[in-house]
Amino acid sequence: MNQLDTLRAELRLLDAAFLRRTRRNNALPCAPHARIDGRDLLAFCSNDYLGLASEPALAAALAEGAARWGSGAGASHLVSGHYEVQQQLEARLAAFVGCERALYFSTGYMANSGVIPALVGRGDAVFADRLNHASLVDGMLLSRASMHRYPHLDLTALERMLVASTAPRKLIVTDAVFSMDGDLAPLAELLALAERFDAWLLIDDAHGFGVLGPQGRGAVAEAGIASWRLIQIGTLGKAAGVSGAFATGQADVIEWLMQKTRTYIFTTGAPPALAHALLASLALIEHGDDRRERLAHLIDRLQTRLRLQRWTLLPSRTPIQPVQVGDNAEALALARALWNDGLWVPAIRPPTVPVGTARLRISLTAAHTEADVDRLADTLNRLEGAL
After folding, report:
1. DSSP string spanning 134-193?
2. Residues 148, 238, 276, 368: which is the catalytic one?
3. Whether the predicted pLDDT of 208 surpasses 80
4. Could you confirm whether 179 is annotated as catalytic?
5. From the candidates 46, 179, 243, 316, which is the catalytic residue?
6. At 386, is the pLDDT very low, low, confident or very high (cuts 50, 70, 90)?
7. Domains of the chain, first to last
8. For the chain, N or C: smaller number of CB within 10 Å?
9. Would you place residue 150 in the very low, low, confident or very high pLDDT band (cuts 50, 70, 90)?
């Protein structure tokens, strides 16, 4: 058997385990309504939590940015691909989350996978929640530091690991909002451990930024914590509705990251037109309490209307509302039944989630309506008894 035959056999194994992923081609802009292969569907799939991805004012800002700045950056940030508008965005981001300085990245994956190796290396130690996002896991692997993964939210286990460690540099890494469960990390307690054991604390607030905290400033602001040893990562392609990410923290820490983060140094800068649009997005987030209130109302409505017995709606106060099914095949069958009813809700299976915890990942946005949520809840209630 040659290499191609081996690969094909492994693809068949994915099929047998109900683990092969399928890509859909949407003919409409990001919004609750999608069109796949000519078929209209009501979608509960995106992380566009505030409904900004298709906001006309934001689209106009992006067009204005392209007219002013062109279509590309032309070089890496540290050569000639950094522009005044990106500098303005970094200053605005830092002020918005309450930190001294920010560094703008092309994607959240690049931020997470690059910042960790800039902070720790061989002989050092990283302590990470077992359910952290894959980008954080890859950052740990790239750092070559020793990896210590504690059970989800188990601070007692984390403390034992920190006590036992003799590493000269330590880094605690966590999601703020866990992307497949929708629950929150105990950020104040994690910072207390970081202070006690002289560790860095990196918090990935991809799913909290724009949604949680006063004026959408994020989970860190909601927790009311601050420290020079805290590095906050935020994503700009979810609630912010555009693209990119940022790291914020104490000024010298961010300077170090700019000097040492390979995913920042060795890539062409993002188009400056995106930064122009993101400045407009930040204003919409800051003044978006009405969107956040509508989102909170829809979350409560879904939780109230669901009447599940066999499947489990996991506890979450965020737009991520997972329905745990357990079996891969059953989760796929449920997603397919919803699809046949005109509802697009993704089935999430291992390795994205632990074995035996396959689920639907329902994502609510401020652009959904009460009728949308009622339709989803009523259909799930009916299907639980039918499948």
Report:
1. HHHHHHHHHHT-EEEEEPTT-HHHHHHHHHH---SSEEEEEESB-TTT--B--HHHHHHH
2. 238
3. yes
4. yes
5. 179
6. confident
7. 20-50+289-386 (3.90.1150.10), 56-286 (3.40.640.10)
8. N
9. very high
